[in-house]
């Protein structure tokens, strides 16, 4: 079952309402998109609120209708793993994109401090099991 906050966060991101999303992100937030989801020749880590919005701008420039639909949530206390389905169409090519993405979040003080994407469920679960607790 998905929490209301998670559903609302994904809905806000999908409609481009980043001010709402940023409320839940720590100012020192780090986002590590999976290699297959990262625009080519760009940094591997996007930092802070500005980095989060910058990455979304890259995606929207490539896929005007890109969105993630959350399907399943695993709550591990200071971490949560959300199974999502990414969908969209390439702006230039019109090619449809549709694939599962596993998003691992680390939390501190009720805010997300790290977000890492995986294209493989078992790797996401391994990462969740091996991450040290976030220092409070």
List the topology elements.
Elements: H1 4-14, H2 18-22, E1 25-32, E2 46-47, H3 48-62, E3 67-75, E4 79-89, E5 96-108, E6 111-118, H4 121-130
Parallel strand pairs: 1-6
Antiparallel strand pairs: 1-2, 3-4, 4-5, 5-6
How would you characterize this protein structure?
- This protein is α+β, with helices and mostly antiparallel strands and 136 residues long.
- A hairpin with a 3-residue loop joins β3 and β4 (79-89).
- Helix content is 30%, strand content 38%.
- Strands 2-1-6-5-4-3 form a 6-stranded mixed β-sheet, with helices on both faces.
- It has 4 helices and 6 strands.
- The radius of gyration is 14 Å and the shape is globular.
- The mean pLDDT is 90.
- It has helices at residues 4-14, 18-22, 48-62, 121-130, and strands at residues 25-32, 46-47, 67-75, 79-89, 96-108, 111-118.
- Classify the secondary structure makeup into a structural class: alpha+beta
State which percent range the strand residues make up: 35-45%
Describe the global form.
globular
What radius of gyration results from the CA coordinates?
14 Å
Q: Please, what is the average pLDDT?
A: 90
Q: Number of DSSP helices? A: 4
Please report the distance between the alpha carbons of the first and last residues: 27 Å
Q: Are there runs of 5+ residues with pLDDT below 50, and where?
A: none
Q: In which range does the helix fraction lie? A: 25-40%
